[in-house]
Amino acid sequence: MAKDKITPEDEKLILEAIKEAEKNTSGEIRVHIENHCESDVLDHATEIFAQLNMHHTALRNGVLFYVALKDREFAVLGDAGINAIVPDHFWEDITETVTEHFRNKQYAEGLAQGIRMAGEQLKAHFPYNAQGDINELSDDISFGI
């Protein structure tokens, strides 16, 4: 199981990054980790995005960080609301940052850095609204096989 590969310290670092990023935005960030990706990584990440109901946020501002550990695959996807406003190179910049950490076997640190980067854009375009802002999606890391 993929969960067995993530230490409690790694999980804590990732969850803290999600909470830090989301405290300043109405955007939602999820992380999904599994061992294998049997198809194109972007296609599979899109399927996971749908399975996690990430397209059900009011402002369509969910972001998914997808990792297939053993296959060394990574993808980051944003919903339509955030895709419409972030700079063209935004997702590529996050991918480059995260995969650079991965090459150095700093998986949790890479995810945390990428999450913070996404959080900055979410904060700029979807700021936190004290009146009525709710956490629409779980912050917990989801795990596949």
Automatic annotation (TrEMBL):
Pfam family, one: TPM_phosphatase
Every TPM domain range: 6-120
Protein name as it appears in the record: TPM domain-containing protein
Taxonomic source organism: Pontibacter ruber
Lineage of producing organism: Bacteria, Pseudomonadati, Bacteroidota, Cytophagia, Cytophagales
